[in-house]
Hints:
The chain has a four-stranded mixed beta sheet with strand order 2-1-3-4, covered by helices on one side. It has two domains: 74 residues, Glutaredoxin (3-Layer(aba) Sandwich); 115 residues, Glutathione S-transferase Yfyf (Class Pi), Chain A, domain 2, CATH 1.20.1050. By secondary structure, the chain is of the alpha+beta class.
Amino acid sequence: MKLYYDPITVNCRKVLAGFDLIGAPYETVKMDYFGGDHKKPDYTALNGNQSMPMMIDGDFSLWESNAILQYAADKHGAAGVYPKDLQTRADINRWHLWESSAWFPSAYVYLVENVVKPVLGQQPDAKVLEAQAPNFNKLAGVLDQRLAKQPWIAGQNVTLADIVVMAPIHLHPWQKLPLEPYKHVRRWMAQVEDLPCWKKTDPAPIIGLKKP
Ligand SMILES: N[C@@H](CCC(=O)N[C@@H](CS)C(=O)NCC(=O)O)C(=O)O
């Protein structure tokens, strides 16, 4: 597998950490997100979305970070982190879909306003953050309810669901997410941050972010 990525982006960090958790061997093609490598013609020919990450395995190309992780886990027989049991797998797939359709778009607002804009020398828009807060709180409550019952999202053990759902909030000290009321989510975040695969893929030093 060959991964096209820039380690500073949410969905690329997700795949890097997930590949490490799976124990998947892979090659890399380093891209420059802010330099617009994902908009160049050669890349666009393979991924018309002009987004990262993308994975190529032989003559098969795959975009969508969660699909890439599912493929890698199955290819490398990583049933521990992507179990084959019908209901556990459906549950993990459900959290993957929830992440890309609801959780990521909401957390991304905080990433853009409180991280990307300041890095580019711009001011966060308080009105945009205020408008997003009710939706973010609703979603954080859903996750908190799940994590009140069990240590990891899909049960007693870490799975791909944990890596996927953690990714959109990976820069939470700078994103300034309103997570204070969600104690189960905060306990789980600390667990994920303790995983070697998570520590190894921390983009904060590359971006030049210092602990607030
Ligand atoms: N749902 C896609 C989202 C991919 C995506 O939007 N990636 C961002 C980086 S995290 C990107 O490349 N955006 C293109 C842009 O900002 O121009 C996935 O999970 O792979």
